[in-house]
Amino acid sequence: MPRILIVSPPFHSHATPLSVLAAALAAHGAEVFFACAPAFRPLADRAGVGFVPLTVTRNSNTGVAERTDQAAREAARLAEFLRATRRGPVDTLLTQARHRRADMLADPEGVYEDLRSVDRRLRPDWYVVDQLAYAATLALHCLGVPYASYCPGHPGYVLSGPGSFFGLPHDWPEAVRPAPSPLATLRAAVRDNDRAFTGLFAAFARDRAPSAPAPGRAFALTSPHAVLYAYPDLPWLPGRPEGPVHLFAGHMAGPDEPPAPDWTRRLRELRERAERLVLVAFGTFLSARDDVLRRVVSGLLDGTDDTAVVVAAGARAGALADLAGDRAVVVPTVSQRQLLPHVDAMVHHGGGNSFTECLRAGVPALVLPMSSDQFSIARDAERAGVGVVRDPNALRPPDVPEALAAATADTVRGRAARMARDLRRYGPAWAAEHLVGAMEARLPLPR
């Protein structure tokens, strides 16, 4: 079986599912190494695979972004990003476009040298690299080593043609669809980024690997062999590039685990006080939007008498502590995967992990997208009929009960249950088997 090195950016929402894939590949018989920033070594230990310290970006997030030690410049960018989310989708995506150079291609020379050293030492048969770890993908391309790409969020991250651009959602939910003028501004910005990054990639490749094929459009650089998506293969997704095998695993959640005894007790107490239990979580970055968390939780508690809430508030748990009570638990973080089988609905930000974990558990959702690929994911939830979407900046507490009622209507719950049944045969084990098969069919004998 192959020796595989998995390369992850130092973000909890990326590294955790990639460590699940690492464990599945190891269970399938591969010799696996997990490469990420040193703080993420425990993920490799839990997966039972080797660990390689490798940092592919200066930015990081070990679980709660605001509590992660960041350099001053990265912390300032995070604060600017959070302010932009309060102004709406286009401002947020424009801010992210401005930050891209520092976040995604901060030290291509260092990443290249580190990966070259690792390759000489471990001699992997092939790699798995996160699609958003662009410096690592560029390095692997220049080194001429075989790799598969892992798409961590919406499949639109893998660009399908000249009209698709990184940072421009392929579709928008009705609640946050921008007007034509600001959308044109965004399109121009992402097109400029595309040209700038493509020039940087080309110059780097000429210096490091002048005999290698040109990398082409920077954000379209992906494996020529296989692309693995932690996402269901929905019929309306954008087209996929020709060449690689495209594998849709549905989700990348680990095996079912019961809640810890303390959580079992808490959930039982909440169920004794309310007919309906809702999980509210905005991920590791957007838990900082405590204004939206407060409006959602207040709306559920004040606007209903049959609903209890568990809210993951990140670093803002203290600021929201006054909401805790008989029908509300406020904590910094939760294990979504452990709690989802025990709740009736979830309010989330449209993150890829939250969306697919809800699908796996058959839990309908109220989706409040704020950045990145969340607008495309929210649109998919809307089109699939497994959730409803609202504008997080326009939502007020009196609006929340109606939004939750729409999200938990019988038709929505029925579709969510059917999708959960359809996804049962997919997941990490399916991904490991099919990824190894696809790569073995595409590659020459091991080096």
TrEMBL record:
GO terms for molecular function: hexosyltransferase activity; UDP-glycosyltransferase activity. It comes from the Bacteria. InterPro entries: EryCIII-like_C (IPR010610), Glycosyltransferase_28 (IPR050426), UDP_glucos_trans (IPR002213). Coiled coil: none annotated. Keywords: Signal, Transferase. Residues 306-422 form the Erythromycin biosynthesis protein CIII-like C-terminal domain. SUPFAM superfamilies: UDP-Glycosyltransferase/glycogen phosphorylase. The keyword Signal applies. The keyword Lipid biosynthesis does not apply. GO terms for biological process: antibiotic biosynthetic process. It holds the Pfam family EryCIII-like_C. Residues 1-22 form the signal peptide. This is UDP-glucuronosyl/UDP-glucosyltransferase.
